[in-house]
Model the fold of this input.
Amino acid sequence: MIDPLGGTLVERRLDETLVDVEGLPSLQLDAVALADLELISNGAYSPLAGFMPRDDYNSVVQHASLAGGVPWTLPITLPVPAAEAATLKEGIVVALRDGQGAIRGTMEVQDVFERDLELEASEVYRTTDPAHPGVRTLLSASEVVAGGTVNAIPYHHGNGAMTPAQTRDEFARRGWSTVVAFQTRNPVHRAHEYLTKVALEQVDGLLLHPLSGATKDDDVPFDVRMQCYRVLLDRYYVPDRVVLALFPAAMRYAGPREAVYHGLVRRNYGCSHFIIGRDAAGVGSYYGPYDAQHLYDELGGAERLGFTALKFEHAFYCRACEAMASTRTCPHGPADRVALSGTRLREMLAGGEEIPVEFSRPEVAAILRAAYTGSREEAPA
Done:
């Protein structure tokens, strides 16, 4: 099986019964930092052992790699209010709390520094436009961040959560050595199904790995998405060829940088291949449709990043071909192609319009329609 980044999984777990934070200063983490804390602690962010200190941060922003040369494309930082930053000194241990004040872990402070938010936005998001949801979140955060090694109390999501060590064990149990991961924050429609099944012709198994952390307000809620995934897998995939597990990350909408990050992290989960499709991890019109594929190549491809990107062009159902196809295989024009944007799909659901069967399986459409209209319509038998 493929090695994790850095050669070994780095887990930073803390036994809740041994946590003693009496007298420690505290920092409150927002939803993004809490998601990052969990992913550091469970090994998904290997080789990171904590939030990035200055050298790693600067190197990631400017060169898409850690200071030691390991490829990494997104800054993993812990913003702190300026008033609290003044009390943080190198070597002290702070308690990390969620928005309700519950202890989620500790951090030994290594570094406290100011960052250039405009530079980070320009380099990582390729735009400083505050209308971009990721940039808007970044520019509203503190310029001061703290870096240091963390230990975290394991967070229990319930049914469906697996750590990188657990997915690796499951892949080994199934005898898989090549595994393709598919990242999604949306319900799987027919084009996604087509891409994953084409990929399954080339590898031993598929990790369907939906993102469960914070997304935009207009994205489909996670519990609804999970219903869609389960009904689709039950009826249209070979059970022994697929593992469904949630990915507890927050969405940053950073386009190419985030798409490559998704592949790097899935390498830690044991995936040798990663699907990079059209407008991967993008939002609006900020990125070209295949910019993520281009960045993968620019950063050294499989030789340097360690995972193989399966690059797909825009997929759709062609009525003339009477099949799923892409621009590589279909000679027909737009009038014969059934493809909906996420925005248009949400509009149709909200308006009670019928979703074309060529775009979405009827069972999935029924779940989405019920969620958007509040009806109790059941999926087709």
